[in-house]
Amino acid sequence: MSSEKWNSLMHHFQFKENHKELDYLTKMYNGTDRAYHNLNHINDCLNKLDQLNEVTPIENKPEIALAFWFHDVIYDPFRKDNELKSAERAKSFLEKQGADFNTIEFVYDLILATIHKEQPKNISESYVMDIDISILGSDPKTYQTYCNDIRKEYKMVPGILYKRNRAKIMKSFLNRTALYYTAYYREKYEAKARTNIANEISNL
């Protein structure tokens, strides 16, 4: 995880450097039980945010970046409140920095958007949600690595049960009118993502 990006973000918000918080984030994302929801995923999200900003200047980019830093900090594959707990950690951090109420609530809501159960309420949430699942539209080899890593995170789940639940989740994605909410990501990833998901389901 790039300390340079973190320091730049802290400077933008006029916070202190908060090296202890960065150490905490790094420790959490480096957890031995994390095969996918780790530093690589966070860096990928941040890099894709930068790439998207080069194509379409993004309003609220710093807030979105901050949301990505925190959005998977709390992660237990057997709990259903990971995003909520991650959002609460971000909120606590921002409150300690003296951030204004609107910024705190905005970042909080961005993290909750990564539950991927509700429609995005604004373009910022669309960006966050699209980038978070951009891996679905990757090349077949990268997608297979992603599938393998997710399986590792659920290694305690028996194979038959895992396959059934995984298929149910991925079919719910296929049943959506569109996987991605922004025109940029629909054009870039939609078709490939649907092919990847369909292939995964058939191979489960």
What does this structure look like?
The chain has 204 residues and is mainly α. The chain has two domains: 1-132, no CATH class; 136-204, no CATH class. It has helices at 3-12, 19-29, 39-55, 61-70, 82-97, 101-113, 123-132, 140-153, 159-174, 183-203.
Strand content: under 5%
Question: Helical stretch count?
Answer: 10
Q: State the distance separating the first and last CA atoms.
A: 33 Å
The major pleated sheet works out as: none
Low-confidence stretches: none
Gyration radius over CA: 17 Å
Helix content: 55-70%
Can you tell me the number of structural domains?
A: 2
Structural class: mainly alpha
In short:
By secondary structure, the chain is mainly α. It has helices spanning 3-12, 19-29, 39-55, 61-70, 82-97, 101-113, 123-132, 140-153, 159-174, 183-203.
